[in-house]
Design goal:
Layout: E1 28-29, E2 35-36, H1 63-68, E3 88-89, E4 92-93, H2 96-107, H3 112-132, H4 144-152, H5 160-176, H6 185-197, H7 212-221, H8 227-241, E5 268-270, E6 277-282, E7 292-297, H9 305-315, E8 327-329, E9 332-334, H10 338-351, H11 360-372, H12 377-383, H13 388-393, H14 398-406
GO molecular function, one term: DNA binding
InterPro entries: DNA_brk_join_enz (IPR011010), Integrase-like_cat_sf (IPR013762), Integrase_recombinase_N (IPR010998), Phage_Integrase-like_Recomb (IPR052925)
GO biological process, one term: DNA integration
């Protein structure tokens, strides 16, 4: 039997006035976990910039100082006594400062997760060479036939994308080591062969996207007397309509370091130019270390991301520097982590007959939903911060999308 929970009705989602907040929200819970009988107050709009003096910004760290505390990525480990940065260019000798600056910048040319994955591939490649008796002089720079042999070792077993990613890692390793890349036409065709020989079992089926019906099912199944569920619904709406990767919004664990690059409450603001839009600044994304802006546009209640997020901030009042989806418990504030978020969503969706979903399903689901609603593809791509190629790769429901843009073409003269 389905359990009914008190919830916000669509009419109650239209205003943040304390007079029409449901009774179960009439408790103000502080970050310490203590409650009072005070009615929760609406989130105040951003105030004008203060003219008070602010603390002086921290001193800039030089490349050399930063490098001393920055662990050397695996790609840059010295290989066979070889220096990966030349000190001489022809008759010109570079200063130590120039060498250190280039080294520091080069080590930040890839995302941290990419460096970690690429380092693992390098270790596997060197292990392969050892097993095959390949001398070190043919390992770096890697002879093309050695590269082909490494790529072909996965033929009939691996997906073609795995082999290509492995070669991309080795190419990055060569760039990091200042070694000539010898891969050419032969390697290109070997990779094509691995792709053609890949077994069906190596190919992951496309991840099913979240859709608006699932978001409504989630809304109906959550218990809005629970601050955690309020945070879950807000995160779901933001990830869906903002076309976000969950890793850009939620930490993977409760460790403080896991939330270092995640948005806080200070990163959320209302648009000064349009009342139907809000902006969420992502401090760092998968492709942009400097961060990107997510525009949240007003939607029909109760699936409106702006209202869901504002209600979360009303119920879960915490310090502005806290991660955005922090919620209150009797023991104090707690981060909403990605695993716990997905667990809660899947509890409701699986019970309703939906398949289990992964984090990326929100991003591709929001994209597909906007396209099906007739929003111009260029607008959707810009809102979702998609590159042109990736945007097309993750389209879903093409049989529904194509008629919106290509049906009943006028062929009369």
């Amino acid at each position: 039997m389905r359990t009914h929970h008190p919830r916000l009705q669509p009419s109650q989602f239209t205003s943040l006035s304390s007079s029409n907040i449901p009774s179960h929200f009439q408790i103000k819970v502080t970050c310490s976990g203590h409650s009072t009988s005070t009615i929760a107050e609406p989130v105040s709009p951003p105030s004008r910039p203060s003219h008070k003096r602010h603390p002086a910004p921290p001193r800039k760290t030089s490349a050399r100082q930063a490098q001393q505390s920055f662990p050397i990525p695996r790609l840059f480990d010295a290989f066979n006594g070889r220096s990966h940065l030349p000190s001489n260019i022809g008759d010109t000798r570079l200063s130590n400062t120039a060498i250190n600056t280039v080294n520091y910048a080069l080590q930040h040319g890839w995302a941290d997760s990419t460096l970690t994955n690429y380092g693992s591939v390098v270790d596997r490649f060197l292990g392969f060479c050892t097993g095959q008796g390949v001398p070190q002089r043919l390992q770096l720079p890697a002879d093309e036939f050695v590269l082909c042999a490494f790529a072909a070792s996965g033929a009939g077993v691996q997906a073609g994308s795995t082999a290509r990613n492995n070669i991309s890692a080795l190419k990055a390793w060569h760039a990091a080591q200042n070694a000539e890349w010898l891969g050419g036409a032969r390697l290109h065709y070997v990779l094509a062969g691995v792709e053609n020989l890949a077994p069906d079992s190596s190919k992951r089926p496309p991840r099913p996207p979240i859709n608006a019906a699932m978001l409504r099912t989630l809304y109906n199944g959550l218990n809005f007397t629970d601050p955690r569920d309020v945070a879950v619904f807000a995160a779901a709406c933001v990830a869906f309509w903002g076309q976000c990767r969950l890793g850009e919004l939620l930490p993977t664990s409760l460790a403080l370091t896991a939330s270092k690059y995640l948005p806080t409450r200070h990163h959320y603001s209302r648009s000064s130019r349009n009342a139907r839009a809000s902006k969420l600044r992502l401090p760092r994304t998968k492709t942009q270390k400097k961060g990107e802006d997510v525009v949240l546009v007003q939607q029909v209640s109760p699936l409106d991301p702006k209202t869901a997020l504002d209600m979360h901030l009303l119920v879960n009042k915490c310090d502005g520097a806290a991660p955005l989806f922090t919620f209150n418990t009797a023991a104090g504030p707690k981060f909403l982590t990605k695993p716990k978020f997905l667990q809660r969503c899947n509890e409701i969706w699986v019970a309703a007959g939906y398949p289990r979903i992964t984090g990326h399903s929100f991003r591709i689901g929001g994209t597909t939903e906007l396209l099906l609603a007739g929003v111009a593809p260029d607008v959707v791509r810009s809102m979702g911060r998609w590159s042109s190629s990736a945007f097309l790769k993750y389209w879903r429901s093409l049989d529904d999308l194509a008629p919106l843009h290509a049906a009943n073409i006028n062929t009369s003269m």
